[in-house]
Structures are given as C-alpha cells and as structure tokens.
Amino acid sequence: MQTRLIYNNKNLCYSKPPQSYGPNQESIILSVSEPIQNTIVIVVPSSRRNFSQRNLIRQTWGSIRIINKVHILAVVFFLGGQDAPGDEEVDVAKLEAEKSQFGDIIMGDFEDTYRNLTLKTIMVYEWLNAFCEEADLVVKTDDDVVLNIFKLTEELSTWTPAVVDSLNFWCGLHLEETIIREEDSPYRVSPEEYSGNVFPQHCAGVGYVTTMKVIQRIRKEIATSFQGIKCTHEDVFMTGIVPLKINSDGNEPIRYVDKIYEWIYYVDYFNINENILYLLQLIQQPANETLDVNEFKKRFEDKIFYLILGVPNFEKVYADMWNLLRKVYRKEKEITIRIDVL
C-alpha cells in the first residue's frame, strides 16, 4: 500500500450481524425477509475533528444495514493520523475512545489536511481492494452529506450482475472545469500536478457509486503510473485524471453515467432558491406538520446526496433532514431519531 495504516479494522466488510451504535441506538434491518440483490460498502473521508458529523451519520442513515434487498456491509470513515500544522489540536483521547467504541475508523500515516485529500482517497481505494472485495458496489460520500439511503438502495436493488461487473462511475459529472493557478489560493493546482488548461471530466466528490472492478483498476494504475506528484483535487485525480490515463492506453474504458441533476442536491444557505426555502421551512417544523409527500417527491424524487452548506445549527438541520426523509420514504410509522452528540 502507498499509505501506511496506523489504525485499521480488517473485519469491517465481513458478513456479520449489524453492530450496535450504543445503548440508545441499534442498527436497523428493514425488509430482512427479501433476498439480497447487491452488497455495498459506504466510504466517508472525514476530518479528525469532525466528531459530531460522524456521530450524526452513525445515528441516521449509517445505522441501516439491510434495506430494499441491499446489504450495506459497513459505513467506514477515513482519517489522517496527524493534525495539520497550525491547527487546533484534536482531543486525542476522545478520538481514541471513538475508535475503540465503534471500530469503523481507518487512519493513515499522514497529516489530515485539504491538500492531502488525494492521499486519503488513495488510502480508501487501497483499503477497499485489500479488505472489502466482498462488496459488489462502493458508495463514496462526505461527512456533511445527508444520504437518502432509501432512494439509493431502491435504485441499487435493480442493478443486475452485468451492471455490477461494469467499469462505470455513476455520479454528478463535471465537464471542462477551470483550473485555479493563483499561488495564494487553497485550491491552487500547479502545472506539475496537472498541466492541462481545464480539468478532464470527473465526478463531483459529494457522492458517487462505482464498482469494485473500477476501484481495483484505478488502484493498480496509480501504483503503476502515478508514483510522483499527484493532483491535490481528489475527485479530479481519482475519477478524472487516472481514468483518462487508463482509457488512453487502449484498455476497456471506464465510463461515466451522469447523475448530476437526478442524484445531487446542494442545500446551500447562502444561495437560497424556492426549493431550498421550501426544504428549510419544512425541516424546521417539529413534526413536519405541513408535509405533503407528493409535493416533496415532485421536487426531490430522485435526489440521493443532500450536501448541507452554510446552515446555522448544522447538527439539528442534519438530523431534521434525515427524519424528513424517513417520513417520506419509509412505510412504517415514523419514529424520530434521537441524536446524542459525542
């Protein structure tokens, strides 16, 4: 592996009964009597200091293990092993306790910085290849995203073995994205990282689905062809630059299925439109008193990845958004999720 693991759990993807997330929460199994169609693993790159985001995921969509004929083997968080220089020091004892309690954290021997996101995602792909080959599909998302696990698994349950064996990314596709070269920008990409005038087509990092076959191809290509400087924009590098190299060598091509309008939604507090206003007003109601399920589905029917941006009281909005999705998509009587922040 290119990344040395300083904390690992090799057994996360082994088929086993779902674990409990503490005395107040238990993993949820829905539709357990149905035969399993596909198995998935969900990977979440996370910052060391994002304790509450990880806890929110564990107690909301991350608590579900079997639903819609899909078995979710694990939800796994990937962190760097050291704080960034100049950052406030993370409570190491608290992090150790979290690792020990939940066992769902993988940690690499590098600084946990924005510029190291590519290194972190390489670690994700290497870990999947080494310890999670049992999964049919991989779902990647971020720790500020509310994942509509109901809609996601409903979609994935229809995918045939031929689809699962394909070389596809299903994602929000970015085309001809401008490259920032300014020295003082945190998003700067040097010509050594990538020399083109625009980025190659690539997936939005907020969320995508791919196959283990793609994970293995990309991991192998990085080990073979990308030993030097790598583009620090992880979504560009992993889902754009490396596939471009693979496809240029006459191999069976990696393909993209664009889902940017169907799957991805930005709940952006600083760019409010009619739909965002509707959504924010709805989730602020204690029990969604005015919820019209048909109206909600008309506006957001196919959305899977809800990125929460700039909202005050992030934890409450996140939990309320999850409870809204439960009420819309679950047939059972709604039970409000209790959020116990670590």
TrEMBL record:
Origin organism is Pseudolycoriella hygida
EC numbers listed for it are: 2.4.1.-
Where is it localised? Answer: Golgi apparatus membrane
Record membrane topology: Single-pass type II membrane protein
Q: What is this protein called?
A: Hexosyltransferase
Which key words are in the record?
Glycosyltransferase, Golgi apparatus, Membrane, Signal-anchor, Transferase, Transmembrane, Transmembrane helix
**Top EC category:** transferase
Chief location category: Golgi
Q: Does the keyword Signal apply?
A: no
Single GO molecular function: hexosyltransferase activity
According to the UniProt record, one GO cellular component term is: Golgi membrane
GO term, biological process aspect, one: protein O-linked glycosylation
* Pfam families assigned to the protein according to its UniProt record, in alphabetical order: Galactosyl_T (PF01762)
Return the similarity comment.
Answer: Belongs to the glycosyltransferase 31 family.
